[in-house]
Design a protein that fits this description.
It is built from ten helices and six strands; from the N terminus they run ααααβββαβααααββα. By secondary structure, it is of the alpha+beta class.
Length: about 290
Amino acid sequence: MDRMTLNTIITATVPVSMLALGVAFYNDFDAPKPDQSNSVERSEVRQIVRDELSQAGLTGDALDATMEKAIVNFIKSRATEPGNNAAPPKPTAQPQAAENVDIDPIDPSSEPLAGNEDSRYQLIVYSDYECPYCQRFDPTVKTVIEEYGADLAVTMRDYPLPFHGETAMEEAVAAQCAFQLGGNEAFWPYSHGIFDRTNSNGSGLGDGGLVELAVDVGLEKDAFTTCLANDEDIRAGIQEDMASGDAIGVRGTPTSVILDTETGSTAMIRGAQPLSAVTSSLDNLLGSSQ
């Protein structure tokens, strides 16, 4: 089955939401990528799709359900989840300078901040709590905060992906409730806690998990549940985060931007790059400024 035939079948049988997800992953893995010794072979992706199409009998409803299962299982198989001893992938690319990226600097009055609020350098991470790659990248964010906090300001902006459903949006709302009620001291433990506890890919923390986590980080239960129930303004703020991400070319999560607030220059880091790739970029930036 060639690529044109596969796309024709998917287009004819899969609803729009499933089509966008399936074709995006197929196109991404089908494109050749240099210097990617640990990459997934195109033939492997094709074979996975072929097998699942065959099992579904090429019928519309069965194909829809099986394609969704195949894509989710494939993503999970490539994600480093808690308890998985698989080695993380090698970096696919070093952070590259992004021309003409006009990104708003961190506003400590309206968004969480870790590190040095007065630093000229900022790390802005667009993330989705249900994204397994964001889950993998979160320990890197933690380490950067710990090791570079004296010279760097860090924030996380919400970019819940639509195919992770309402779960990703609810988790983003919950994290912002933690920030509203407890400031940075509550937000960061809560944010890291979601990544630690979620099953990802839309599975979430389970019933009551968001409230339980809020209590665990020291928030008052009734105030937190009230915030969750009155979330219109928070959801509007999340939509603003997403719009700002779209404006600078965010195509997936995690996407991070290093900003020099004095010069306006930026560097973009796409994907769950290893810690070494991120720290290398930061070391070069901080070293050149000194």
